[in-house]
Design a protein that fits this description.
globular, 8 strands, Aminopeptidase, 18% strand, alpha/beta
Amino acid sequence: MTQSTVIKAALVGVPAGMLIIGMVSLLFFGKVPDAGVSKADRVSGFLRAPVSEGALRRWIKRLSVDIGARPGGDVKKSRITAKWIESELSEENMGYRPAVRVFEVGEVAYRNVEAELSGTSRAGEIVVVGAHYDSVADCPGANDNGSGVAAMLAIAQAFTGTENMRTLRFVAFANEEPPYFRTDAMGSLVYARDCRRRGEDIVGMISLESLGCYSDEENSQRFPPGLRKFYPDTGNFVGIIGDQNSKELVEMFYRSFRRVSDFPAQKAALPPEIPGIGWSDHWSFWQCGYPALMVTDTATYRYAHYHKPSDTPDKIDFTRYTLVVQALVGAVKHLVNP
């Protein structure tokens, strides 16, 4: 064979071989992505994910074990936690562009982390899904409130790239726990006041608070004085709780929850003076005239490890907790698409 013949064979054979390899690859590995596939479809395929127990476990471990106790007084831990939440929500992980809302207490900077999914036909109406990321001192805060933050992240990931009528916001708040609780330094109060100052129309705020404790034992559930006779004494349910001005939101959210799940749920729209009714970030939104509710396992009225060093991941009933978070996705979906 002459040199020119070899060169000609190579020029023809190499491209042909590459073509054959490409065709075989398509047979085994599927077709090349269509250039016309929408951004939303790509986001859905690569970033959106259904609620999974594995993800919830990882997030709670990160908060309560890897980071550990996160009291507001520990400025370094507070900053580390906020940055981690920002990273989880980011374009690389979930497809959002989170905003960090910095506020100062004295000369110390704290951070509320916000991610927004703009609405379509009713974009001016805003639904906020929030959870505080701090814990009390010397408490790992797996349930209070690692479970709330993990639930918020799971719901955010489930909504990645979706289109909804109303605007949906996910917010992680600093400084819910003492000594900042119900003070001007409470992160959710700072946030709610800013929303009111901007004239934003928040049609509902959902506070995710201590969601991981469930029991089938009799008398495992306690209540504030006067309420026991109205509710079951077995702590196997999730509570949907608001004040009287948020009654319509409570009723709507409860119906939506029950529409998508048969998990036991109880609702209450009660005076905020009753102990426990306003013990989370929804209280801050009440102060600014917004309807708000709390979804909770009732915390101190059921959870033996409330605000203790023993509030660790092994105390969480992950099977039932996961079912609750899955149902919350459906309930939020109905709320942003009335």
